[in-house]
From TrEMBL:
Name used for this protein in its record: Uncharacterized protein
Biological source species: Vreelandella populi
Domain of life: Bacteria
Lineage per the UniProt record: Bacteria, Pseudomonadati, Pseudomonadota, Gammaproteobacteria, Oceanospirillales
């Protein structure tokens, strides 16, 4: 988690901030449904970028994606 995220800069629909391989993004949580090879259905939660713009890094090192997902307080 990045304790330096300034949520006043976040889009209204953003519920997470995270660093990706391309830069920081504001993200929203959603569900992804799928079908396993054995025909069993599944649903997982995933983060989806909000809009087309990147977010500020708030001091998080570019490329350091692990543990970057920061939920909105």
């Amino acid at each position: 988690m990045n304790p330096n995220v300034d949520w006043s800069e976040a889009p209204v629909d953003a519920d997470h901030w995270e660093m990706t391989e391309h830069g920081a993004v504001w993200a929203t949580t959603g569900e992804v449904a799928g079908l396993r090879d054995n025909g069993e259905e599944f649903v997982v939660n995933a983060l989806f970028p909000c809009g087309d713009d990147y977010a500020p890094s708030f001091g998080w090192p570019h490329g350091q994606m692990l543990d970057s997902a920061t939920p909105r307080p």
